[in-house]
User: What shape does this take?
Amino acid sequence: DGKDAFIDSEVGELIKSFWADPGFQATWHQRSNFQVQDALAYYCQEIDRIAKDDYVPDAQDILRARVRTSGIVEEVYKIDGVTFVMFDVGGQRNERKKWIHCFDDVTAVIFVAAINEYDQVLYEDQSMNRMDEAVILFDEICNSPFFTTTSMILFLNKNDLFREKLKEIPFRVDDSESGNSRYPDYTGPQLVPGQTNVSEGSAEFEEIYEATRKYILQLFLNRNKQKGKEIYSHITCATDTRNVEVVFNATKDIILHTNLRGSGFVVA
Assistant: This one.
């Protein structure tokens, strides 16, 4: 029973052995073929600390934990004297019918897309690329009659994991014969593991990162069919508290401005 499971020093040593095993690492590098949580690497690397008897989760441990959203979860925040009501909804296909019609009067929609999932497939449909599905869903929401006058804020999330994956997994795959093509129209530079030796932080890597990031952003922006509708976009890393603070302050300003404009206090 997972609810009663615990990690002590003995279990911690076993997990360390598994993580250090070459076969396990080879499987981890092929993780796009499996439904594996991204945070597994972090927890395995921190297992010595986690397995201690006096272990207390720190902020990063909590931020990296994932709980699947089901239905509609409402949270109320008061920031700088202003009350914000936020609704978290599940993005899976079977969750959407529960909420998409419920928010025709919201001030803004924050759409979160994990950009590191460019090589992964859906849990519920092994033939559908997760990024492609996110773009389709964004199209559906952005152009929905429920959100005609609603501000759209796009978070391209998991930027840190995206940068890590670019060193291991090619962004573009052009293999139409096998049906495994991925972004064949991407013409920018990319890393090819085993063929391209570029270290993270180098000018070459940053060029590749910027080109792929801009390509992904454009995939989403091109789906906006409403003339004059602006999409506010941010590159985010949810585990970086400073990044989240900057992004949230910008998002807060957008929401407040939109609310004032809708009330007639601000002229667009």
About this structure: The first helix runs from residue 9 to 20. The chain has a mean pLDDT of 84.
